[in-house]
Amino acid sequence: MILSIESSCDDSSIAITAIDSKKIIFCEKISQENEHCSFGGVVPELASRLHAESLPRILEKTKPYLKQLKAISVTTEPGLNITLLEGVIMAKTLSYALKLPLIGVNHLKGHLYSLFLESEAIFPLGVLLVSGGHTMLLDAHDFHDIKITAQSLDDSFGESFDKVAKMLELGYPGGPIVESYARSGECTFSFPIPLRSRKQFAFSFSGLKNAVRLEIERERDKKEFLSEGFKADLCKSFQESAIAHLLQKCKIFFEKNKQNRAGWRHFGIVGGASANLALRESLKRMCDLYDVELLLAPLEFCSDNAAMIGRVAVESYLRGEFSAIETLRTCPKIDKL
Fold this sequence. Notes:
It is a single chain. By secondary structure, the chain is an alpha/beta fold. The chain has ten helices and ten strands. Helix 9 (277-289) links the parallel strand 9 (266-270) and strand 10. Helix 5 crosses helix 6 (174-183) and helix 5 (157-167) runs parallel beside helix 7. It is globular and about 65 Å long.
C-alpha cells in the first residue's frame, strides 16, 4: 500500500491506496472552511497551523496499515508554500522513520487522476481543470505526456465564484453558495462573456468579476440592502456568463481535436469547481454533440483529497519513479505537468 498526504491549500487529507488493485483502503479529510469563512478566503498562516493539528490526528488512524506500506507520497506542487511544507515535513519524517521511498506528486495531475480512482486510466484524454487556483485545458496522452493548451490569464473559474460570493457577503467557499442562489434566479443581467471577440486561446475572469462588482455597487446606491431576489438573479447571470466563457474555449479545443485522427474520444472535468452541476450539464451536451464520452470524478473527490494523490503515486511506484528525501522540495507555482 501507499500512504499519501495532501496539504496544498485548506484541506488536510491522508489516504491509503492498494498498489495492485488501486483500491482506496482509507481516506479522510478535515476541511478548514469554518475557520476561514469569517475572512472570506484562505489565510495561509492559519491554514498551515491547522494542517499541523489535523494531519497528525488523521495519521493516527492509519496505524493498522503502516506495516503494509511500500511508499510515502505527498503533494509537492502547486499550492501555498507554507501549507505544502506541512505535508512534506510529515512525509519526510515517515519516509525516514519507516525506511520507505518517497514520491512527490503534482497536485494538478492528482486532479486528472481523480477520474480514475480505483480504475485504469484512459488515454488519450481531453480535460478541463477548474478549481479555486487554476483554470486550464489539458491534452493528455500518457502519464508523462500531459500538455497545458490553455489557461487563465488572471482569476480562475473557482476563484471568481469565491469573489462574487464575497462581494455579496454570502460566505466562503463561494462556489456552492453562488450555485445554490443561481438555481432560483433569472438571467436579468447582461454580463459580458470574456474574450468573446478575441481569438486568444485562454481564459479570463477579471473583467466579468468587475462587471458584477459594478452592478452590486449600482444596486447599493439605490437601496439600503441587497434583496435575496437580486442576489439570486445576479448569481444566475454571472454563472451563465462564466460557463459560456468556458464552453466557448472548450468548443475551440473540441474542434481542434476533431481534426486530429489520433485525437481523444474521452473528455473529463476535474477540480473543485467541476462539482458545479450547471457546468457538468453544459459540457455533457457539448460532448454529445462531438460524440465524445464525458468522464466525471465522484462529487466527494472533486475537491482536494489525498486519494487522488495516492492514485498518481501508484503510477509512479509501478514505474519505479521516486524522490530523494534530500532533494524533495515544494513548488508553489507550476507551468507544466
